[in-house]
Amino acid sequence: MSGHSKWATIKHKKGALDAKRGKIFTRLIKEITIAAKSGGDPDTNPRLRTAIAAAKAENMPADNIKRAVQRGTGELPGASYEEFSLEGYGPGGVALLIEINTDNRNRTVSEIRHVFQKNGGNMAEAGAVSWMFHKKGDIVIPKSAAKEDELMSIVLDAGAEDLRDDGENWEVLTDPAAYEAVLEALKKASVQLLSSSVAMIPQNYIKVEGAAANSMIRLVEALEEHDDVQNVHSNFDIDQKLLEQVAG
What we know:
Layout: H1 3-14, H2 16-19, H3 21-36, H4 46-57, H5 62-73, E1 82-89, E2 95-102, H6 105-118, E3 122-124, E4 133-142, H7 148-157, E5 162-166, E6 169-174, H8 179-188, E7 195-202, E8 206-207, H9 210-225, E9 229-234, E10 236-237, H10 240-247
């Protein structure tokens, strides 16, 4: 059972995306700005194309997207962002890989270290946990949205690697290069999506229970609240009912 899929479900139920729309816009603008450094044409820049699609999915105004691209290409002045990853461990030995976009590396590293310490975790050296994760297109679909046979046909024909039964959801994994094609095939088939992203997926999951589960969720939420954190990837697996209680 994927902790990522369960966590996507919980955030959806809490309405976290709508409640934090301003923060989502900030993250998306940073991603567009960094992606545009490699070229401002989304037709020839897959990362920028994906970032713009994510922004449009959140109903970001076209002018905001345009300005973010122009800051990335240097047409408009703006902050210079640096992207890097931080690694650490949470309660129960759970691995955490955090993607950062910041204009002040030292400040951000110090603040993230404090978040770990305050919530029962600890920072780790570079490479300590990153080897446990692989970059994949990750699409989470509620089971009510599609039958397994139908969904299997759609995603595999479009180039997906795997379709997993994850309790309440289906989870589709793709090679990053096939992500857009699979996403487009699902949209054409009018399949409802719970979440979709190119994410760092763990090879294995660690079961966390009791007080450790409570602390783990608090740590993930605290990390996601930080302005410079783009994404938090983890290999925790917490019982669905407990997860809803803890994150409720």
